[in-house]
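hey
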């Protein structure tokens, strides 16, 4: 599988997966559960509204995603998580190059994956607090025509009176951990500079 596909921040990368039962803890909703559920509902609604707009070309859809998604995902936190094993080993210049290349790559990859699921619907069903920083997990049911539904968990962090997405867990698969493993494997085989070069190359192709 191509690296770009493996580390794409796609909500819907497991459209044929089976539904995972909710944990007992998910039934204990925090006080701000309504706000968190509404955030996920609103975000998914805006995403799929773009996908369903027949007047937009593929390049225009990607452009819309580039405008919208960076404000919804905590790309700094996500980016740091993906290279945490190597953070102490790289130089300031290497880190700066990585931080500059990652956002566009992540958004393009996420947008490309979403384009395959214009008919999907996301329904928040439960919330549960997570950690000590006010994070919250929103459990949601994802359905697409003629396919088995599956569950996705959005990990959110409060920011500026709203939320940002930190991670997604799809049918029990933690994407942050999976993506971190993919990055680490690529770096181990090719070096950190090669990862940055790969990100830049993918960005250039996406912009062409």
């Amino acid at each position: 599988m191509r690296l770009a596909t493996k580390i794409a921040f796609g909500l819907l990368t497991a459209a044929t997966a089976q539904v995972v039962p909710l944990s007992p803890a998910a039934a204990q909703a925090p006080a701000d559960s309504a706000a968190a559920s509404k955030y996920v509902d609103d975000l998914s609604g805006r995403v799929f509204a773009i996908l369903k707009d027949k007047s937009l070309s593929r390049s225009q859809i990607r452009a819309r995603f580039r405008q919208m998604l960076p404000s919804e995902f905590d790309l700094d936190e996500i980016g740091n998580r993906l290279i945490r094993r190597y953070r102490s080993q790289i130089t300031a210049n290497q880190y700066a190059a990585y931080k500059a290349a990652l956002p566009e790559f992540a958004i393009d990859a996420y947008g490309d994956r979403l384009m395959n699921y214009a008919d999907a619907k996301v329904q928040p069903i439960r919330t549960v607090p997570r950690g000590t920083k006010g994070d919250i997990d929103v459990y949601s049911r994802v359905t697409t025509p003629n396919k088995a539904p599956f569950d996705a968990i959005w990990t959110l962090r409060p920011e500026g009176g709203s939320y940002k997405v930190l991670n997604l867990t799809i049918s029990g698969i933690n994407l942050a951990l999976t993506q971190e493993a993919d990055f680490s494997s690529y770096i181990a085989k090719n070096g950190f500079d090669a990862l940055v070069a790969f990100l830049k190359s993918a960005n250039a192709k996406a912009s062409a």
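Residues 4-31 have pLDDT under 50 and may be disordered. The beta strands are 121-130, 135-143, 150-159, 162-170, 173-174.
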